[in-house]
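Title: Prediction job returns without error message
Component: structure pipeline
Severity: low
Priority: P3
Assignee: unassigned

Description:
Job completed but the reporter wants confirmation the result is attached to the right record. Sequence as submitted:
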Amino acid sequence: MQSISITLIPKAYKGQKRIFIRFNYYEPLIDAIKTVSGRRWSRTEACWHVPHTTTMMERLKKLFNGHTLHISETTTPNKSVQLNSNYSKLAKTYTSYLKGKRYSKSTIESYSFLVSDYLLFHNDLPLSSLDAKSVERYIESVFVIRNYSISTQRQLISALKLFKRFCAEVPYDNLELERPKKDRKLPTVLSKEAVIDIIRMTRNLKHRAVIALIYSCGLRVSELINLELRHIDIQRRQLLIKNAKGRKDRYVIIAESFMPLLQNYLNTYQPHRYFVEGLNGGVYSAGSIRKFLKDACKRAGIEKRVTPHTLRHSYATHLLENGIDLRYIQELLGHARPETTMIYTHVAKKDLLAIESPLDIAVKQFMVTEEAHQKVSISRT
């Protein structure tokens, strides 16, 4: 068994004591965590967390036996109790400032948490001491230990830059704060045949409709679970995606081949408000979608790690391979910047397959030369 470095971070979360579990992606560990009752996935923190009890801590130690375990003593700030009175007031006012700037709920939560945690780390220091070096100390002492991702560190710098604009008394200069470079990872893309196999191997009608719609329209999983029936225009074969990422609305086209499946699903399940509904007609669980998609991939014999976003990546890549202009793909995906859509040019096969490998050229030349030599040999016989 591979030994993984795991960090357990006790912290307050939405009024509850929780243990956040951080580690690099390793599927056996994820499967192990899913056996723990009370587990939850935090989209903001991008990690699992469980109830913080003595019994749970002992359970985790046994569960992760054989791995390298770190237990952090640093907790998430409870703004009203743990921060000193000046910093607590400052953190609350900063949150109000973000709300006034009309940032999204997730951005407000992330920025508020990161700035509050930064202030808590320097709880005993005056505001005048929070220079650029203090940011470096915080990153080295907290971010590295907690094994936060590069994207979270970039988010911290953005939060602190905005905090400087909010509170000019902070002595660091925004120019002193540098974001680490983004990871340039290429998205995982499935072949068209693999996508069809996944849909075919999805046995439940509701699950099949969900997977087919995500791929058919290139939806984010959050867009799918929040899609309301009134935003489905069957006559025009269109979906209206309301208030998507960046608070933007957009229209997408429903595949004609999906229409019979859509009608069958709607007639069978008769949802009331949302396209797909959870218990008591509420919003469906994104975790459930990930689970039944994973099961369908196993039945289809696909060994790649496939998530709902993989279907979105595949949708965009297949559009590009079919000759659709990048500007239209950007519009269909709801990307704010064309640079985001450009990533698919690195995984699309259409242009790459047109490039002839030097090995193929050399083999062809060799075969031509060999054939000419044989003809000469035959003519001399």
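Comment from assignee: result matches the submitted record. Confidence is low (pLDDT under 50) at residues 74-81.
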